[in-house]
Amino acid sequence: MGEKKGAPFFMYRHMIGGRSLVSPCRLDVMTRGDMDEAMKLHGRVTRGLSPEIFVPTGPEDLERLVGGEGVSVGVWSEGKLICMRAVMTGALWVNETLEKMGFPADETGRTVYTDHCIVDREFRGNNVQFLTHYAIEHRIGDDCGVFFTTVSPKNTFSLTNVLGCGFVVIGMKELYGGYMRYIMRKQTDRVMPIWTHGHLVIPVSDTKSQKEAIADGMVGYKMIRKKGRHSMLYAPMAEHPPRGYWKNIADGK
146-176: per-residue pLDDT in tens? Predict the structure, then answer.
């Protein structure tokens, strides 16, 4: 691995014994030469995780993601990879993934899929997920119009981060051998408003009601904690407001 050339920035590193220290970091695009560090980071982060929460990316797919079929950015501190965000860009690979999720292939080649974003335990809490997502957008945003990803409903931290990056829930499906996942999308080439007045509040554990809301044209756009459990807020996403929307607001409904 060569020396990373990205401009330095500084994040807290949380170490054993409650000690936190501001550490210099650099962000750069990853290459095949970074495969060893990518594998080490995956090993540290995913060890012991249930596939209900996160399914690790295998070595072959990791190599594709740092090669010609993907774009990956990494964050390094003291020569060690401490964060990796990988986006699948190869059209054939993306379309195979879309079909597994139950969506039609994109013949325009402007859809990409975020495979993963993982962060070393010592650097969590620095919002580095947001930093790396927008670093990817900055790099490929002109060439794509839709970002897809999947997140486990039980992975609260990742779900909060993905929603915070502008994704919305547009589906729920069992994937990766039978594990429930939210299917999430961020559209950048056809921006539509979310009509949030009168939203639905549905517990994350209530899969049936969430699927019904999605079938009715709603998207999940925010997660809250209500009565001791996490719930998703659902509202219509459309060019025009639902029928009676403004009247209900005027009537105080």
Answer: 999 999 999 999 999 999 999 999 999 999 9
CA distances from 121 to 44, 81, 90, 143, 220 (A): 8, 12, 30, 33, 28
Backbone angles phi, psi at 153, to 5 degrees: -60, -20
SS3 per-residue string spanning the chain: CCCCCCCEEEEEEEECCCEEEEEEEEEEECCHHHHHHHHHHHHHHHCCCCCCCCCCCCHHHHHHHCCCCEEEEEEEECCEEEEEEEEECCHHHHHHHHHHCCCCCCCCCCEEEEEEEEECHHHCCCCHHHHHHHHHHHHHHHHCCEEEEEECCCCHHHHHHHHHCCCEEEEEEEECCCEEEEEEEEECCCCCCECCCCCEEEECCCHHHHHHHHHCCEEEEEEEEECCEEEEEEEEECCCCCCCHHHHHHCCC
- Model confidence pLDDT, tens digit, residues 57-103: 999 999 999 998 999 999 999 999 999 999 999 999 999 999 999 99
Q: Whole-angstrom Cα distance, residue 52 to residue 139? A: 31
Question: pTM (2 decimals)?
Answer: 0.93
Taken as a whole, the chain contains a residue count of 253
For residue 160, the tally of other CB atoms under 10 A from its CB is: 14
- Amino acid residing at 226: K
Q: Which residue has the tokens 């399914």?
A: 55
